[in-house]
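Retro notes (design track)

What went well: tokenization of the new backbones is finally stable.
What didn't: we kept losing track of which sequence belonged to which structure.
Fix going forward: every design gets posted as structure first, then sequence, in one message. First example under the new rule, 653 residues:
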């Protein structure tokens, strides 16, 4: 951002001096941002204001109902204002500023009015008027020259983004929901676009960029700037959707102030109110909220999931308390087909989508679908404490359906957790940032990942690993061992029999229990032999017979193997175990090598075998750190004990 842009942003932000005392710091943006938008629109519309008013009066006299297209044409823009008011005229009637300001806002075209309504600015007008500040604040903004011949659309975009950044940073308790730190966005955009830099300089290219959880629009702006920095003549169309009304207003305002098409920023829930249904994009990027449940739209999502791949969520549904992988599926559904040029996307996740969910679960099935379709290009681990509202570790997932042939069926893992510098002053949970040179270094490592991973001498070799897509798959096998029992009648087993549900309901319960007591002390390791003892109880209904056997059966490693009617061993559920076998290994070879030497009577229940996928990122980059020598630990303990004794001595004195 240039000095001029910074100075202009500083001047606009100086309005905060008037608000101090009546507004909390975190509330400044509620006044400053919408008034910046209003002042810019006022300046942009000024050259055609008279023409629009004249045309409006003419159309009104003719009784024309749909004036919108004609008035847009008269304004030469996608918005207009039919009020006689302007910022300068508002200052001419100090006693009625609130009334006139509302009338002025009401004169804007529907799209602009919608933005101001989402800001909730009418509430701020009342609040400023009650505090006696409204006239002073409006006067301050009237002194700011934001005419297009003084401040271009591009410059205005930078100014507004700087204001958004300040607003977000002082509101750090919620900033992470709506605002991603700029250096994080820059790294994300670099990783997303770097493999395409040769294509981006093609004359006359048109690229569509989308963010389904766009917040204040920072990712869209950075992607647009990156592409146009490589090719000033490129046409970049940005699309977004945002659920929060105020941040939607900020993002849409940013598009308006840059001269873009604000109608491409949709309002609402991307899952249940897809604002860009049927659209496909060249690039997509998002930082969806972490661990947010999707219960409010559960029915809608489950109904769409039931349609399979005719909908967006055919791969699977994650657990209800985390919709991260729903955002990813939503974005994948908007990829261009490979034959139409394909798409690339990047998304910020916490660690949960990497491994949460066992084989067969919704999360595992989503990962399986992504990897089996060779959509995952790479994952980059970021330092912790990068975001405003959380200090947890985060990851970029980068997906493409038009991978470079050399990367086909491969996934790059890049460990960027050590690439950070400490902030001089923390902002909420944010204590670290990624410096420009570190962004460049990580970008190079990702682009050159295949050669870096194959060169042990490369300085970043330990930070880059390349895997086959199948390396993340596994077979979840169920290992069974035979049920071995001995049989005996004891006081404890008689007590168990007396409490069995079938026995409690039995009409001849007392008679049965009395007969069973007559067997006290009977025991055998043979089911057949013990059955002859139980014959003394007489013929029993099936449920009672089962209760009797359950009560008098005891698990015993040296006992008789129990079989079904076909002579096959019955499994002991208490000895049942599960093993994860690599996808490319034969499960029977695994059993023979890893299990049978220890438990030779084990077998695999193949009907229970499931395919699962997980990405154990940290395991692949684990570095063993030997414990400190005992002498060093002992010396530290002695030092601490001495310090404690010294402190206690001071307290006693």
């Amino acid at each position: 951002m240039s000095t001029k842009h910074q100075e202009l942003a500083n001047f606009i932000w100086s309005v905060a001096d008037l608000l101090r005392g009546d507004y909390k710091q975190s509330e400044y943006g509620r006044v400053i941002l919408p008034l910046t938008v209003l002042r810019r629109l006022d300046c942009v519309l000024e050259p055609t204001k008279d023409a629009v008013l004249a045309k409006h009066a003419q159309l009104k006299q003719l009784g024309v109902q749909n004036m919108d297209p004609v008035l847009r044409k008269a304004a030469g823009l996608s918005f207009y204002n039919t009020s006689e008011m302007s910022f300068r005229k508002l200052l001419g009637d100090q006693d009625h500023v609130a009334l006139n300001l509302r009338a002025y806002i009401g004169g804007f075209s529907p799209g602009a009015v919608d933005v101001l309504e989402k800001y909730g600015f009418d509430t701020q007008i009342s609040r400023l008027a009650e505090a006696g500040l409204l006239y002073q604040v409006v006067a301050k903004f009237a002194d700011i020259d934001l005419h297009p011949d003084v401040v271009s659309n591009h410059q205005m975009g930078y100014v507004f983004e700087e204001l958004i950044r300040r607003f977000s940073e002082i509101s750090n308790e919620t900033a992470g929901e709506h605002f991603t730190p700029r250096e994080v966005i820059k790294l994300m955009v670099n990783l997303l676009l770097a493999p395409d830099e040769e294509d981006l300089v093609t004359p006359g290219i048109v690229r569509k960029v989308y963010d389904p959880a766009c917040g204040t629009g920072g990712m869209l702006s950075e992607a647009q700037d990156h592409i146009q920095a490589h090719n000033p003549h490129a046409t970049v169309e940005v699309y977004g959707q945002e659920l929060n009304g105020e941040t939607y207003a900020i993002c849409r305002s940013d598009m308006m102030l840059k001269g873009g098409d604000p109608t491409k920023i949709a309002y609402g829930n991307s899952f249940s109110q897809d604002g860009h249904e049927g659209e496909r994009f060249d690039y997509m990027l998002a930082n969806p909220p972490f661990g947010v449940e999707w219960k409010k739209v559960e029915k809608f999502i489950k109904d769409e999931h039931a349609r399979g791949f005719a909908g967006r969520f055919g791969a699977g549904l994650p657990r209800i308390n985390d919709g991260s992988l729903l955002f990813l599926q939503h974005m994948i559904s908007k990829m261009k087909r490979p034959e139409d040029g394909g798409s690339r996307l990047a998304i910020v996740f916490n660690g949960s989508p990497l491994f949460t969910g066992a084989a067969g679960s919704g999360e595992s099935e989503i990962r399986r679908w992504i990897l089996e379709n060779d959509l995952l290009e790479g994952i980059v681990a970021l330092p912790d404490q990068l975001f405003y509202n959380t200090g947890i570790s985060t990851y970029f997932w980068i997906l493409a359906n038009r991978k470079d042939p050399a990367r086909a069926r491969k996934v790059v893992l890049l460990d960027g957790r050590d690439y950070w510098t400490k902030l001089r002053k923390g902002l909420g949970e944010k204590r670290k940032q990624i410096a420009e040179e570190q962004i460049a270094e990580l970008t190079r490592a990702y682009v050159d990942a295949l050669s870096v991973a194959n060169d042990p001498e490369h300085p970043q070799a330990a930070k880059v690993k390349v895997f086959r897509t199948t390396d993340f798959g596994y077979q979840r096998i169920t290992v069974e061992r035979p049920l071995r029992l001995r049989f005996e009648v004891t006081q404890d087993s008689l007590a168990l029999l007396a409490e069995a549900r079938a026995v409690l309901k039995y009409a001849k319960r007392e008679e049965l229990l009395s007969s069973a007591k007559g067997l006290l002390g009977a025991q055998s390791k043979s089911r057949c032999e013990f059955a002859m003892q139980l014959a003394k109880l007489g013929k029993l209904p099936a449920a009672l017979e089962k209760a009797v056997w359950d009560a008098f059966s005891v698990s015993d490693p040296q006992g008789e193997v129990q079989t079904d009617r076909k002579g096959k061993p019955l499994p002991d559920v208490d000895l049942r175990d599960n093993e994860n076998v690599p996808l490319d290994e034969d499960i029977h070879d695994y059993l023979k090598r890893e299990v049978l030497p220890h438990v030779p009577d084990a077998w695999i229940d193949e009907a229970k075998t499931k395919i699962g996928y997980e990405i154990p990122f940290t395991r692949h980059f684990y570095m063993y750190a030997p414990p400190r020598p005992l002498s060093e630990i002992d010396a530290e303990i002695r030092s601490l004990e001495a310090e404690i004794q010294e402190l206690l001595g001071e307290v006693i004195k």
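Added context from the reviewer: The CA atoms of residues 421 and 433 lie 5 Å apart.
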